[in-house]
Amino acid sequence: MLKIENLHVKLEEEGKQILKGVSLEVPAGQVHAIMGPNGSGKSTLSYVLAGRDGYEVTEGAASLGDFDLLDHEPEERAAAGLFLAFQYPVEIPGVGNMTFLRTAVNAQRKSRGEPEMNAAEFLKLVRETAKTLNIDAEMLKRPVNVGFSGGEKKRNEILQMAMLQPRMCILDETDSGLDVDAMKLVADGVNGLRAPDRSFLVITHYQRLLDHIRPDVVHIMADGRIVQSGGPELALEVEHNGYADILKSVA
Known about the structure:
The chain is an alpha/beta fold. The chain is built from 10 helices and 12 strands.
C-alpha cells in the first residue's frame, strides 16, 4: 500500500534538512503508528506525502501502490486515495459543510471516471454516514469548521474520510486537544473504517489514542528518521519511560 524509501526532505526557504532517510512500509489493511519527540519530523512526513508547499524532496521515493505520490499534485494524490486529517483543521467561512463534502466526493468520482452523485443520492449518504459517527445533522448545515469545538472539527474530518473512502488515511495528531469522550468518538469512527483494502498511518504523542485505535506496528521517529519499530508494546514503553532509553540505544 504505502511505501516510503530513503526519503530526505528539507524546508525550501531555510534549507534545513528535516527528514534524513525515512523508510517505511504500511501494507494494505494495517494500522501503523508513528511516535516521537517534538521536532522529530512526524508532521513534516505527513505534509510531504500529502503534497504541501514549502518542502523540497532531495532524495528518496514515496508511492501508494503503483502510484508515485511525489510526482503528482495534492488533488491527484487525494484522487488516488490519500487522505490527511490535520492536527489543526482549518475553518472555511462561507462554504457550507454539505457543499464542501459533495464537491469533494464528486471531484474524486469524476477523476476516477465514475458518475457524479446527484443531490438526493448525496443527501441520503451523508445523513446515514453522519448518524453512524454521532454527528448532529445541524453540524452539516454550518460552514466548514466555523465555530466548531476541537472535538467537532476532528469528527468532521472523520466524516470527510468516511465520505471519501480513501485507501490510505494519515492522521496527524488527531487526538491533539481532545477530551476523553471526543477522542473515543474519533477513534470509533476510525475503527469503523478499518478494512482489508484500507490502511492507516496514525501520528501521535500519546499512548491514550492507541488504547482505542490499536496499531499493528509502532514506529519511533527521532531526528528525521525511524529509529525503532515494534508492536503495540513499544507505545506502552514510551508511555512509561519516555524516549530517553530508546534514543540512547540507537545513538
